[in-house]
Amino acid sequence: MQALEVLLVEDNPADALLVREALGKIGIHDQMAQSGDGDSAATFLQEQLRKNSVPDLIILDLNLPGKNGATLLAELKSDPRLRHIPVVVFSSSQSDFDIARSYQLGANCYVAKPLDLQRFFWAVGKIADFWYGCASLAQKKRGIMNE
Known about the structure:
This protein has 147 residues and is an alpha/beta fold. Helix content is 43%, strand content 14%. It has a single domain (6-146), classed as 3-Layer(aba) Sandwich (Rossmann fold).
């Protein structure tokens, strides 16, 4: 599997820990930054842009304090410097409205968080299988994000 830099935007410390643990169980120990709300995630991404080091993948919860996930998603996908970053919405909401709105705003994938621990680990594993094993992501080294 390719090495990726991931930004996890999750306000629930238990869920964030479970995502990290699930990735660790399948041998993924990549660089993972975490923001607990949309405002700090936006600030983090602006700082990373200044360093020319944006993440390869964003895992985004919708229900965040301050700037919610939908607002952050809309901002990401409207910024030409960030819109190439795949965003996986990983939310406890199974609302048709939230799912449809996420895709309308440019989400690359929507995964409802399972309540069962074993299914939670399975879901994170499937996210990793796809984004780490199958998907081809833009290569930062080639400078295509700056064009």
